[in-house]
Amino acid sequence: MPTAHPGSPAVDTADVTALLERGRTLSTPVLRAAVDRLAPPMDTVAAYHFGWIDAHGRPTDADSGKAVRPALALISAEAAGAPPETGVPGAVAVELVHNFSLLHDDLMDGDEQRRHRDTVWKVHGPAQAILVGDALFALANELLLELGTVEAGRATRRLTTATRKLIDGQAQDISYEHRERVTVEECLEMEGNKTGALLACAVSIGAVLGGADDRTADKLEEFGYHLGLAFQAVDDLLGIWGDPEATGKQTWSDLRQRKKSLPVVAALAAGGEASERLARLLAEDAKSNEFDSFSEEDFAYRAALIEEAGGRDWTSEEARRQHTVAIRALHEVDMPAPVREQLIALADFVVVRKK
């Protein structure tokens, strides 16, 4: 699990919580109204995915995610001098695309748990997971385009480009699972597509809807892209060493899926005895018919080799490096100082979170 190190940012938890809560409060009614447009049973399946109802259709207050992207979209609007409400359609559109990707990813990865609950495909079947994911993507574009403004058209172009890159990243991620070796550069490119692109869109889409020019939007995207890489680096750490009580996923989650995440790739590239032992072991795993029956001790041993080879420390440092690059881009954008401070607070939160 990532922990604070010397030089790690100090996060004001109360401020970040307030920003995340504002994002939820302003975007959730619009998000619910969008989901209500779906034909049955997709509306119910989507409501279950978002944590609004349980598997039996009863209202619940289950965890609906961190809501980092909606929070960023609202602050983005303020960066352009517009009220946060201007960014709400963008916030909801990005959240719909994000959840489209989660529904499909859970099915492709075989994940049975998300946010401490059974995933949609496990409860409602693979067909509904695919259909509802497709429907959420269509809704995202519909919500933006029905605004009928030039700014909405610009925002939609950025969202569709980000979505295409996200899909590219998922395709790369899947293909890497079947390769013995993936370079650090390939892994960063994949994670930039899979996570960085949509986070970059979230940080710019509110500004675009608020009338920001392309240079401002591009710089905000640069901030969001590197923030996304920091976010994913932390996710990769949590995917191996995260506390299941906090993450809602199994122990050694990414190792169970044979993911070539940053800690694994960095460990394999490091050289040395632990790196070589890990490479031999993972090569044997790829050919093993008994992988699904591995014990906790088997996965713990692989995690220990990754750490011994330096993969854990390298990934922690990469999260901080990407955070630094993101903040540098942010300082090239002219915006009110309080807005800049809010974006920095959310960036700091990304690199010290535990779930």
UniProtKB/TrEMBL annotation:
PANTHER family: (2E,6E)-FARNESYL DIPHOSPHATE SYNTHASE, GERANYLGERANYL PYROPHOSPHATE SYNTHASE. It holds the Pfam family polyprenyl_synt. This is Polyprenyl synthetase family protein. The keyword Magnesium applies. Belongs to the FPP/GGPP synthase family. The lineage of its organism: Bacteria, Bacillati, Actinomycetota, Actinomycetes, Kitasatosporales. It comes from Streptomyces gulbargensis. The keyword Magnesium applies. Keywords: Magnesium, Metal-binding, Transferase. Signal peptide: none annotated.
